[in-house]
What we know:
The chain is about 50% helix and about 10% strand. It has about 625 residues and is α+β, with helices and mostly antiparallel strands. Helix 5 (about 90-100) packs antiparallel against helix 6 (about 105-125), helix 9 packs parallel to helix 11 and helix 11 (about 370-400) runs antiparallel to helix 12 (about 410-420). The chain is globular, with a radius of gyration of 26 Å. The two termini are about 40 Å apart.
Amino acid sequence: MNRTATCLTEPRTEPVPQLPDRTVGELAHLLFDGELRDEIHTDWRTLIAEDAFRPRHDLTPKERMALSYERLRLVNDATADPLALAYDPHRLASLHEWTGVVDSGLTTLTGIHYNLFLGSLLDHDGFQRDLTDFASLHRTGTFLCTELEHGNDAAALETTAEFDRESGGFILHTPTPGAAKFMPNTSVTGGPKTALVAARLMADGQDEGAFLFLTPLSDEAGILPGITVRELPQRMGSPVDHCLTTFDRVWLPQTAMLQSQHGRLDDNGELQSTLGNRRKRFLRSIKRVTTGKLCMSAAAVGVSRTALTLAVRHAHYRHISGPRSGQWAPLVAQRSHHGRLLEAMATTYAMTFLHRTVVSRWTEHQEADRNETERLVAIAKSWSTWQARDIIIECRERCGAQGLFTTNRLAELMADIEGTITAEGDNLVICLKAAAEMIFDHEVDLPATRALPLSERTLNDPAFLQELLGGVEEIWQTRARLALRQGKKGDPTARWNATSAPALEMVFAHAQRQAAKALLTAADRATEPQARFLLDGLGRLFQLRQLSKHTGDLLAEERMTADHVRALPQAVETVIAELAPHLMTLVDAFDIPEEALSAYPLARGAYVGDDLAVPPHTAAVTLRRFAASAPTPG
């Protein structure tokens, strides 16, 4: 497309002010765990920059599945100690954060092998086993818990492991078609596999609850006797070898049962457990699902940053007709374009800092606060993955038809995020569980009210905005409590139906407030003035946009004034205007390797099906002219 008309962003001859590299560096330092950045992130960032991780759109779905397994081996080769990785939530989550940039199928495989399989082994009696084959990936690990008729209610699973006193082992069996394990990666793709199978321990006819059993599925010759594996139809998103798996009285040695304090067979074949409740035993057996939620949150923030980087670059490269005939203007100059991207940007920064906070909380938690921390992990996973879906859709739309092509990654990310929303607990279900707990077992920790009267509080005050977000959470909690108390007695379903809607709003408000708090805390740690200015602005924009949905409630409860409500739209416009010149700086801080980004035409200003370079008015020039009018920190 050869444009000879005058360009609104034609290069100037005089020096153009540019944002210093130290601003990007400071933002990246804060985004990626500060002084621990190299330890947690650098290995994975370096790995995905290699040629082996470039997209291969010429492959069939089966070939792409095989490629993801080959990449899993590259991940393992780059890991000094795979067992240590399985025990390190920070590095394990980071692995998902970076692999999601290039191969969501690989992200799925890493979560299953390192977290659900190796992690579960190590959480039980794995240190007493020889795990060499799994640590070396001579055998790939997989995890079989949910069944065709038991997904979110996996505690009701039907697969049995009957204790055989004569041999001292177990008989693993699928008793009904609905008990088929759905939908683990159990095909022969990727080489020999071993599974951890969740099954009901039956001893002398008594159901002792579900435990995990180490079960070889295949070897170099194929699927082992007594096991049936049927590949499922291709699902949306990056291809993975999802299958239905059943067992026909497969014998396992006694060592197959993963044992720990929550369940152990003594010398007489009797179950000894510190937990008398079968449901609690099951939940303890599959406790790695919580770490899996952290990994899904990590994947969500990683792909959100990827989508934004592609969309922001496209907004600078792509030019449209200007206000006068014969002039051209970059898309990014339009408020209707960059405003939406900035709102997504604020959410992505908030998501990232919330994720960092939650991973640290999980790593450092004590047994006394385990339930509260698990709940926070679940809330963060559901909120972050839902936000990621919205962000990816927004970025795809801002890239127009170019965003529809899989070669530009965004269309793939739109499909892939759906799997993340469902994995490790369906979002709505885990939010409902959190909501039920928080109605009475949670108090909103509102900050102390300042001495200033409400009429003198301003929407530029982050503390006031935090109070308002807390007010939203408190309003919905009060409504949920009232609904539960006034519900129809003797009909628990009707009572919960009346309560669930306000209870869910309470959970969403809690997630938004925690995300805002994490972003503002990061801003307080910034030492470089421009980085602090940008993070403060993102925090203000994020909070204002969340509050805009609740102004009626806040006004009715006298937590805001009518003047606040009237001023809110302009407050949003003001902060967007302040941040707009710095979009490229904000995505540069995401630090996605150029080697990975350059594989996508959008990221380099090219078009699908067209090898032409961008016109002379490049994104860099656009950025410099746009940045020249940027407000500076006060």
